[in-house]
Write a structure and sequence with these properties.
Blueprint (H helix, E strand, L loop, with lengths): L1 H31 L2 H29 L5 H17 L2
């Protein structure tokens, strides 16, 4: 069951992180053409999106009422870390 929690967190985190970052880079580049603005945006979104997705997966796993607290926190932490590093 623990491997399933990690797999859930990693797959959700990496997918969400990549899509969000690609959208941000495209939008900022089209609007500003500034490398500094793009780097600032990526750093900001890395933190905000990682926290948002981790909280979302935590609430989702908790609401299923079929996971242990350890499994829930493993999904939460793995989502946060994967989302942060996929930015």
């Amino acid at each position: 069951m623990m491997k399933e929690s990690l797999r859930t967190g990693f797959s959700f985190g990496i997918t969400s992180g990549m899509i969000t970052t690609l959208g941000l880079i495209t939008g900022l580049h089209a609007g500003t053409h500034s490398k500094t603005v793009i780097i600032g945006g990526i750093l900001t979104i890395a933190i905000a999106d990682a926290f948002s997705d981790a909280l979302g997966i935590h609430v989702s796993e908790e609401s299923e009422c079929k996971h242990t607290p350890k499994e829930i926190w493993m999904s939460t932490i793995s989502t946060f870390l994967q989302n942060s590093f996929s930015q």
